[in-house]
Design a protein that fits this description.
The complex is a heterodimer of chains A (310) and B (139). Chain A is of the alpha/beta class. Chain A is 46% helix and 9% strand. Chain A folds into 2 domains: 128 residues, Glutathione S-transferase Yfyf (Class Pi), Chain A, domain 2 (Up-down Bundle), CATH 1.20.1050; 156 residues, Rossmann fold. In chain A, strands 2-1-3-4 form a 4-stranded parallel β-sheet, with helices on both faces. Chain B is mainly α. The chains are: A alpha/beta (310), B mainly alpha (139).
């Protein structure tokens, strides 16, 4: 059986953000898994994927850090699939996989550090790294989801925002752009597909993969605020009531800069920001509190009540 | 060449008085202007070539050469080209005003992304000409 049909039990790599600002994403991902009967086996003693900080200083160290997560999942836990809901982690594990397959120097560096650290060196191909979107799409699919919906998102207009790391750079995602059924790097649609199956109405949103300024949110807050403000305006102009996210950095950025945009530029936006797992969780009958809606900065409760979702 | 700040200011002021096709053409031109600034800041002569019928897409390709992170605005450029086609294919469509507004927001995103990137990369805070000035001051 192909791996894409057996995501029933996967190694779960939440990453640092999901233990902090993205806590609601972590709990809603677990709740969705529970509601769908899917098992998440958290990677033991996981470490940072190398994120932006390490990658900018020494990309090979980032490759090692990501490889260690995959090595533990494969060699100590016996998994062949690692699921990372964070776009940054997902991207970095994919990049490490690519580097270890193509670059001899990366292989040597990773081997040297792995030996020093006292664990088996990860070898390219031992695991398949997937995103939370691949996980639900592969394990349950739209039809399976439709059958399980208890609380339809009917009437909720959603702009699906994927951010820039989920599909870029294309060469590290060889499984994408493979025709029908696969994800597209130019027009991603997995989140659209799943939320539509849960009853939502997706709007045409031209900035679904545009930059949110997440990497510069502290070093150049004004640019980040203006980028987010533009995303909010475009979502509202598209008729969206909610922006669905699948990345903790994008999500935090949208929420924080929505507040900042109001304070600094006097622009009050009404669009609500929710993780796609929160929306799916509620559609599957999980209570808003269990999926962490109260942890969001963006207060969506009145809208969810008005729509009969909460 | 329109300064990058003037491009931002023009994008902030929709020209609803112009016919839809002209508005779309101007927005596309402003998008090209943004990418011309990026090319010049990297000491390249902005290309006059076209890709898939759009100079904008050729300029993006030129700007991304040797700078893979610039691909973060690839889809924004493609959306701009798409909206141009959408408006021009049916300028009398009942939703043309909405389409133009969306095109303006897409162009604005390109402007914000590229001008922000130029600042972060210290390629010019006010216009692309500042890099040679700064380099001259350093020597």
């Amino acid at each position: 059986m192909a791996k894409t049909t057996v995501y029933q039990k996967v190694a779960y790599y939440p990453g640092c953000a999901l233990e902090g600002t993205g806590h609601a994403y972590n709990r809603s991902t677990k709740e969705v898994g529970k509601a769908l009967g899917l098992e998440l086996d958290e990677v033991k003693n996981w470490n940072c994927c190398g994120a932006m900080e390490v990658k900018n200083i020494d990309p090979k160290i980032q490759t090692y850090l990501s490889s260690r997560v995959m090595s533990i999942a494969a060699n100590e836990m016996g998994h062949d699939v690692v699921m990372a809901p964070c776009n940054g982690c997902y991207h970095n594990l994919k990049k490490a996989e690519y580097d270890l397959e193509k670059d001899e120097e990366s292989k040597q560096v990773v081997d040297r550090i792995s030996k020093k650290a006292g664990h088996k060196t990860y070898e390219a191909g031992q695991v398949e790294t997937i995103h939370a979107l691949d996980w639900i799409k592969g394990a349950i699919g739209e039809d399976g989801l439709r059958e399980r919906v208890k609380n339809s998102l009917n009437g909720l207009k959603i702009a699906n925002y994927y951010g820039c790391m989920y599909t870029r750079p294309r060469h590290i995602f060889p499984e994408k752009d493979q025709g029908p059924g696969s994800e597209s790097t130019s027009q991603p649609h997995f989140m659209d597909d799943l939320l539509e199956a849960a009853g939502a109405e997706n709007v045409d949103f031209p900035l679904k993969t545009a930059c949110c300024g997440g990497a510069h949110t502290l070093s150049d807050s004004d640019t980040s605020t203006l980028l987010v403000l533009n995303i909010l305006r475009a979502a509202e102009a598209s008729g969206a009531e909610v922006i669905a996210t699948e990345c903790p950095t994008c999500h935090s950025g949208l929420e924080m800069h929505q507040v900042r945009a109001e304070k600094k530029y006097g622009y009050e936006s009404n669009v609500k920001i929710l993780y796609f797992t929160q929306l799916l969780g509620m559609a599957l009958g999980v209570k808003p509190k269990q999926v962490g809606v109260h942890e969001n900065v963006s207060d969506s409760m009145s809208l969810l009540k008005e729509k009969g979702i909460a | 060449m329109t300064s990058i700040a003037d491009i931002g200011a023009e994008l902030d002021t929709p020209r609803a008085d112009l016919p839809a096709g002209e508005q779309a053409a101007r927005l596309l031109e402003l998008g090209e202007g943004v990418l011309e600034h990026w090319a010049r800041a990297r000491e390249l002569e902005p290309t006059d070539e076209e890709r898939e019928g759009f100079r904008l897409l050729a300029l993006h390709r030129q700007g991304a050469k040797g700078e893979p992170s610039f691909n973060a605005c690839r889809e924004t450029c493609r959306e701009l080209a798409y909206h141009y086609n959408l408006v021009c294919s049916d300028a009398a469509h009942p939703e043309v005003a909405k389409r133009l507004e969306m095109m303006r927001l897409v162009a604005m995103h390109l402007y914000l992304f590229v001008s922000g990137k130029m600042q972060v990369d210290q390629l010019g805070e006010f216009c692309c000409a500042s890099k040679p000035l700064r380099l001259a001051a350093q020597t």
